[in-house]
Amino acid sequence: MPKQRIGQKIKLASVEELLGVPSVEGCMDIEVARIHPFKDHPFKVIDDDKMHELVESIMMNGVLVPVIVRQMEDGDYQMIAGHRRLFAVNQIGMDKIPAIVKEYTDDEAILAMVDSNLQREEILPSEKAFAYKMKYEATKRQGKRNDLTSSQLGKKLWADEQLAKEVGESRNQVHRFLRLAELIPPILDLVDRKIVAIVTAVEISYLDSAVQVMLYNYMKENGECKAYQIYALRDYMKDHESITKLELIKILNENAPRNETNKFQKITIPTTKLKEYFPTFYTKSQIENVLFQLLEDWKKENVDKEG
């Protein structure tokens, strides 16, 4: 292959070349305007540096891997695999994209969509949560139909066991991600941003959405809650149908992590202050005895009553 001379201009692919159909069996050009996103698509398409790289790649080389779609009743198409490529093509302004049309039932389409996107390098907890939920529910529906259950499986696996096996995670881990789908969006966003730990988020997911909203507002003011704070809140909710904002704050504050070393650090009272309350002839021991007696009376009046 001849070497490119220094200073030689690089020839960019023309629009016609970009629209060239890859040599893949069953591939055809489809108008971009006729392709619609998958309903409730759980994977985010972000306009980040990786997307910019994809756009540049398509501008230089075209769409090397066709997207996968299925035809809908109105004649348009639903995207199964290729949402990022479709976004990139729209950014460039291409009118068509190479695609392979598959015949899928609704559940088959869900399984194909999820499986194709789980191959991504980076997947957010929220994406896994809703992807696993969609796959889990589709698998359960398929399990109810003998015609969709492969005889090679022998004894039918439970939907969660089958899901765990297919995604390569433990059954318990799959359950954790399924629980995340029960979180309100603002708290799930905190999980994606690694502000709230997954184990804590799982405990939060068992709370009613209205309680989750109050909890989220609390965390905005006070920072992340720990799992044991949520345990205490859940224990309270077992015996109560509802909770007020003040009750929620009280429970979380009472179970908040405490820095005992700071709480009982040395306290110094200036001599000038003590002189305002004690006669000059009082000894150090007498002053201490008075102070401790006053503290004991305060404790009985305040702490013991609350306890």
Concise account of the structure shown:
The protein is an alpha/beta fold.
Q: Beta-strand percentage? A: 5-15%
Query: Which architecture of the largest domain per CATH?
Result: Alpha-Beta Complex
**Number of helical runs?**
16
Q: What's the overall average pLDDT, rounded?
A: 81
CATH superfamily of the largest domain, by name, is Conserved hypothetical protein from pyrococcus furiosus pfu- 392566-001, ParB domain
CATH level 3 topology of the largest domain: Conserved hypothetical protein from pyrococcus furiosus pfu- 392566-001, ParB domain
3D shape? elongated
**First-residue to last-residue Cα separation:** 85 Å
Radius of gyration in whole Å, from Cα? 31 Å
Biggest sheet record: 5 strands, mixed
Low-confidence stretches at least 5 residues in length (pLDDT < 50)? 1-22, 145-156, 260-264
Task: Give the helices and strands as they follow along the chain.
Answer: HEEHEEHEHHHHHHHHHHHHH
CATH class of the largest domain: Alpha Beta
